[in-house]
């Protein structure tokens, strides 16, 4: 076969403010899925209706979430490497977004005691959502400059929490009567609402946001190319030791965040006896403070550094977990929730912006695949551990165990240098002789 020259990127024009807004709208839509499917409504529906009267209800919910995260974790680095090779971020993001939306809408058909169907659809929906985040997050270094990573990432999370508030307000009329048998259709309509909101607010990204272009010829299937690129990166892991240190820290503290998000509504309902109305108000409170935290800490991160900002939020999280363990009243838990909201958005936004700072730009999607892998792999441990401790002891001891992950993550984070990839003198991995685009 004839020689095929290496693929080259076309020049990427800076994104406009309108395009940044379009990027953040995806966060708005996806948070309707997070709020109604992963956080507030479906977890309670799953444990009290689908798995009614089962002592392992918490464990089953945690297992479904962990399985979906495991699958997404395994495929994320490979998908990222493929996207870097073909510059097809939008295409892959579209595929996984459709999977999430369709699976979420189909939850409407999960009637009482149809546990197996709900279990499978949750896994599919969350795979679609989490795998899509690999490509969504990797747009950040393309739409802004390094000095603004923190605030733009914060704007995205803040818009996401606006989406959460909007989803709760739109769902409230359907949920006001609570989880009574005659009202299960209304409960299931909230799953359709989540799918519709995600579809509406995600769509503009696919029309208005630029994707880097490559003229790509290949002599192997994309999956083979993706696996080979990931293996090449792993063989040369020593070149990326700073990124590795951050990812290990992120793996541990994000495990705790995932567990809090997945079990917060269940903890409030079972341990503190919240009604559905009180649960909705609780999450409205959290989302309100999360908006302020995302913007405020995002700006702070650009001033004092992303690493220092993450450290502050992890200290706040440790206090939140201890407070939740000790809380005996709903009012106390509301106050703790407000503080948690400040830390929630800011920690996620600062983590994404720190990753954007230290990664090699030429392999940004692949490394966001690893970032996604560690975030998702962490969610395999925490929810499963919470479910086991809840089953054998109680939810209070389960939630206290989360604090251990925050402490270890904080300690390991201090070993990370907040420096661009080139600052340590490493050679770009593409400078290493490889298997891509070579003559046949």
Features:
disordered C terminus; single chain; 440 residues; Growth Hormone, Chain: A; mainly alpha
Short description:
The chain is an all-alpha fold. Helix content is 75%, strand content 0%. The longest helix has 30 residues, at 57-86.
Structure description:
The protein is an all-alpha fold and 440 residues long. It has one domain (17-209, 224-423): Growth Hormone, Chain: A (Up-down Bundle). It contains 15 helices and no strands. The protein has helices spanning 17-39, 41-50, 57-86, 89-106, 115-137, 140-143, 149-175, 184-208, 222-235, 241-270, 276-304, 306-326, 330-358, 364-392, 395-413. The radius of gyration is 21 Å and the shape is globular. The model is unreliable at 1-12 and 423-440 (pLDDT under 50).
Instruction: Please report which band the strand proportion falls in: under 5%, 5-15%, 15-25%, 25-35%, 35-45% or over 45%.
Output: under 5%
Can you summarize the main beta sheet? Answer: none
Mean pLDDT: 78
Instruction: Provide the CATH architecture.
Output: Up-down Bundle
Low-confidence stretches: 1-12, 423-440
Structural class, by secondary structure, is mainly alpha
Percent helix = over 70%
Radius of gyration, CA atoms, in whole angstroms: 21 Å
């Amino acid at each position: 076969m004839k020689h095929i020259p290496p693929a080259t990127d076309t020049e990427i024009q800076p994104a406009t403010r309108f395009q940044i807004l379009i990027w953040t709208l995806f966060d708005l839509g996806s948070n309707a899925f997070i709020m109604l499917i992963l956080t507030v409504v479906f977890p309670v529906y799953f444990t009290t209706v689908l798995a009614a009267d089962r002592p392992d209800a918490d464990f089953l919910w945690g297992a479904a979430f962990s399985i979906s995260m495991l699958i997404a974790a395994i495929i994320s680095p490979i998908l990222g490497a493929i996207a870097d090779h073909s510059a097809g971020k939008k295409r892959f993001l579209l595929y996984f977004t459709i999977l999430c939306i369709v699976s979420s809408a189909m939850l409407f058909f999960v009637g009482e005691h149809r546990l197996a169907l709900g279990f499978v659809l949750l896994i599919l929906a969350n795979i679609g959502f989490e795998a899509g985040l690999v490509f969504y997050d990797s747009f950040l270094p393309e739409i802004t400059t390094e000095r603004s990573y923190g605030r733009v990432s914060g704007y995205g999370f803040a818009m996401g929490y606006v989406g959460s508030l909007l989803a709760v307000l739109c769902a409230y009329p359907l949920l006001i009567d609570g989880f009574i048998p005659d009202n299960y259709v209304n409960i299931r309509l909230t799953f359709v609402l989540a799918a519709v909101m995600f579809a509406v607010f995600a769509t503009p990204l696919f029309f208005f946001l630029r994707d880097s272009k490559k003229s790509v010829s290949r002599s192997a299937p994309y999956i083979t190319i993706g696996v080979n690129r990931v293996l090449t990166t792993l063989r040369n892991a020593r070149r990326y030791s700073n990124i590795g240190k951050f990812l290990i820290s992120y793996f541990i503290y994000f495990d705790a965040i995932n567990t809090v998000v997945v079990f917060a509504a269940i903890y409030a309902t079972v341990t503190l006896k919240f009604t559905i109305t009180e649960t909705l108000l609780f999450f409205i409170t959290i989302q309100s403070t999360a908006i302020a935290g995302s913007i405020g800490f995002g700006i702070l991160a650009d001033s004092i550094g992303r690493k220092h900002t993450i450290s502050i939020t992890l200290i706040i999280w440790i206090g939140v977990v201890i407070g939740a363990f000790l809380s005996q009243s709903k009012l106390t838990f509301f106050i703790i929730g407000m503080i948690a909201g400040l830390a929630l958005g800011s920690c996620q936004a600062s983590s994404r912006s720190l990753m954007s700072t230290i990664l090699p730009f030429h392999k940004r999607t692949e490394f966001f695949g690893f970032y996604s892998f560690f975030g998702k792999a962490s969610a395999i441990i925490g929810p499963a551990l919470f479910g086991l401790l809840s089953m054998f002891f109680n939810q209070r001891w389960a939630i206290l165990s989360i604090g251990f992950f925050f402490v270890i993550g904080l300690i390991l984070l201090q070993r990370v240098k907040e420096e661009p990839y080139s600052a340590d003198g490493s050679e770009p991995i593409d400078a290493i002789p490889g298997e891509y685009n070579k003559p046949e």
